[in-house]
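[Discussion] Sanity-checking designs against the backbone

I'm trying to build intuition for which residues belong where. Below is a structure token string of 713 positions. I'd appreciate it if someone posts a full sequence so I can compare it with mine line by line.
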């Protein structure tokens, strides 16, 4: 119903046709309710959540204004003049899940009095026919299908994710489908897309989580290994001009380790060089490659994937390293021996620690009291370290040092603690050849400090007034130690010299157990050679048909290790049991009048008892007294020598029995001073036999068989 606002002035119409009579009449002005507002006779209206544009018509006697207290209600004009007016009211779409209410006020003013007509707009909320639906898909390109069985026409919109595209929005009472297409995810991380389906007054939101083909890694760490011994071929020596980083990170599958080879001239070893690393097919550790094998200290620093506790052998792949603002991104595409490709990615910090000790102490040996037994009795251990970095001022060669460490008597393990520098001194009161120095526990000395391989005419020595020290600290990891070196090395070339400070800490240096090469002191006298405690000292020599009478003579030797300091040398007559010469080439220097006939022999000494005899008999098995001419006179080829004291005991009786290539000793001996001693024991060759190589027959001219003459008083 319309409401009309009228201003009534009685008798005004009549005054136009009669005599004018001035009669002042005061009629009050009243602002009434709006007429024809939304065609509703109510104080409020309902609007759907979709929003609307609603025209409103009304008539006023005076100027008017219209406004709302809600920012989601707007008008195409906010004011107008008296008379009939139409205003378009726009109600925005309600995307919230709650209803909302706004006030609309139409105002007029007459003679200072304001009248308001107020009504409310109530808008319904978003109608959700389900909660947000989460869809999980893998990284591959694929279609996403959503069942939509309805007679309504859906409106599908992609809210987030440009990798999603809408391909079908068909609805049907039955078997209706909405289809979206997802592109392949080639990124390192999973990604999330959102799309909505709107139908009628209902809105459904879908969240699509697409996985990645890369297994995400965490807890990344890096170590600069330098050119450690584990970068050489198995069994080979460390190679120069190499540098390698070991990178490790954890994945849900297990531990991934990468051995990345870089330019050896790298300056900042804390930063992993960016770029692409391919398979090191040549095993030459070429920069820009990754390695598949290692030896020595850092066995775990080669490219491998550990899954379910097992290392999977990597045979191909590539590793890409990128860096941005200090954050690293590493992608490893590794193919195992079964042809399966493993994809890993790591993002985050990665500061490499410097662990560039050039080589493990490959001569980490216990020498015992070999040099010090008769003085302070300090135990001696020796460590040889090779460093990746040359000493300052020397960028061509790799430095190395031998550290001789003296510990308390009776201590045979890896000595730990801080050692001060002290050079052992000779003790002239000692008679023994090799036992004449004084060394004190808690000290160390250095031999061949930093001697370069390629620098001739240059010497290096420890600067003694610089308080040099060497410290060994045991680490938790079995067999590993921290080495703290603080020395000053004087480099001398001709008349000039320079002092080079060398101070560094090396962590996780694998020493393990010391190799026992200590020669125990054995005073002159009878002794028993323990089985298995001997090594061969020289390749056997075979004197074939030496006297042109059909006789055949061999000589060879072995020495005790760890359990003593003895060397055994013997000469045997094989009688008629000649060894067979094998093929081979002899240089001109060793050819004689017998022509080109080779003298290589690889047979075991024939089994039997070789008894001592002073007179040579070509047909008998004999242990002979023999000498060869040396630079300083005849050299015995039938003796037992105490290497510690230097005493030589000549064989004057007894026998050597060979059984299966193994010698068994039962020897009577006498020294140059007339001291007698009896030696027994055996030697088990490391191979299956006691082999002998060739010996040219020209030795007939210098080989003598004659008994040792016991000196008289």
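Best answer:
Here's mine. Compare freely.
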């Amino acid at each position: 119903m319309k409401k009309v606002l009228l201003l009534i002035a009685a008798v005004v119409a009549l005054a136009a046709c009669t005599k004018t009579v001035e009669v002042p009449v005061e009629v009050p002005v009243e602002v009434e309710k709006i007429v024809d507002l939304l065609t509703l006779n109510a104080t409020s209206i309902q609007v759907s959540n979709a929003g609307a544009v609603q025209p409103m018509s009304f008539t006023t006697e005076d100027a008017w204004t219209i406004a709302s207290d809600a920012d989601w209600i707007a008008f195409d004009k906010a004011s107008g003049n008296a008379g009939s007016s139409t205003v378009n009211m726009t109600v925005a779409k309600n995307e919230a899940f709650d209803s909302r209410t706004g006030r609309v006020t139409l105002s007029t003013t007459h003679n200072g009095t304001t009248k308001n007509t107020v009504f409310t707009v109530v808008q319904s909320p978003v109608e959700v026919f389900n909660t947000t639906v989460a869809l999980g898909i893998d990284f591959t390109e694929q279609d996403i299908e959503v069942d939509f069985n309805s007679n309504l026409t859906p409106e599908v919109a992609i809210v987030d994710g440009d990798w999603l595209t809408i391909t079908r929005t068909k609805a049907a009472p039955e078997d209706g489908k909405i289809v979206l297409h997802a592109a392949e995810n080639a990124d390192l991380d999973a990604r999330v897309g959102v799309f909505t389906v709107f139908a009628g007054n209902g809105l459904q939101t879908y969240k699509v989580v697409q996985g990645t083909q890369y297994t995400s890694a965490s807890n990344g760490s890096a170590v600069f290994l330098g050119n450690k011994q584990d970068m050489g071929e198995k069994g080979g020596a460390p190679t120069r001009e190499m540098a390698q980083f070991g990178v490790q990170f954890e994945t849900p599958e297990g531990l991934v380790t990468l051995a990345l080879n870089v330019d050896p001239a790298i300056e900042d070893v804390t930063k992993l060089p960016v770029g692409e690393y391919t398979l090191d097919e040549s095993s030459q550790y070429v920069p820009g490659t990754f390695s598949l094998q290692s030896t020595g200290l850092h066995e775990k620093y080669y490219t491998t994937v550990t899954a379910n506790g097992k290392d999977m052998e990597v045979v191909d792949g590539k590793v890409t390293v990128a860096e941005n603002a200090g954050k690293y991104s590493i992608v490893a595409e590794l193919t195992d021996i079964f042809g399966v490709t493993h994809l890993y990615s790591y993002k985050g910090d990665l500061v490499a620690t410097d662990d560039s000790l050039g080589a493990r102490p490959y001569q980490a040996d216990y020498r015992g009291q070999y040099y010090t037994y008769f003085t302070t009795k300090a135990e001696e251990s020796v460590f040889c370290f090779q460093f990746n970095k040359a000493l300052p001022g020397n960028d061509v060669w790799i430095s190395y040092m031998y550290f001789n460490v003296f510990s308390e008597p009776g201590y045979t393990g890896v000595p730990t603690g801080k050692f001060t520098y002290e050079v052992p001194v000779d003790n002239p009161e000692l008679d023994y050849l090799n036992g004449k120095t004084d060394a004190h526990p808690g000290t160390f000395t250095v031999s061949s400090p930093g001697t370069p391989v390629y620098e001739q005419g240059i010497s290096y020595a420890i600067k003694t007034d610089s308080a040099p020290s060497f410290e060994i600290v045991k680490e938790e990891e079995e067999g590993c130690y921290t080495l703290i070196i603080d020395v000053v090395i004087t480099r001398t070339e001709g008349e000039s010299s320079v002092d080079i400070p060398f101070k560094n800490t090396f962590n996780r240096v694998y020493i393990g157990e010391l190799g026992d090469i200590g020669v125990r002191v054995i005073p002159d006298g009878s002794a028993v050679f323990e089985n298995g405690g001997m090594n061969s000292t020289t390749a056997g020599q075979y004197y074939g048909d030496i006297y042109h009478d059909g006789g055949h003579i061999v000589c060879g030797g072995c020495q005790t290790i760890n359990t003593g300091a003895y060397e055994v040398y013997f000469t045997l007559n094989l009688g008629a049991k000649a060894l067979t010469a094998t093929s081979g080439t002899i240089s001109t220097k060793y050819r004689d009048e017998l022509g080109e006939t080779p003298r290589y022999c690889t047979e075991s000494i024939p089994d039997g008892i070789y008894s001592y005899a002073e007179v040579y008999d070509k047909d008998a098995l004999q242990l002979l007294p023999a000498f060869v001419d040396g630079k300083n006179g005849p050299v015995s080829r039938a003796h037992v020598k105490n290497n510690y004291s230097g005493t030589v005991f000549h064989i004057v009786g007894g026998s050597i029995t060979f059984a299966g290539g193994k010698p068994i000793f039962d020897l009577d001996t006498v020294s140059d001073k007339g001291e007698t001693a009896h030696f027994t024991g055996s030697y088990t060759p490391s191979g299956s036999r006691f082999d002998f190589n060739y010996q040219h027959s020209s030795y007939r001219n210098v080989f003598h068989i004659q008994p040792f003459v016991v000196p008289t008083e």
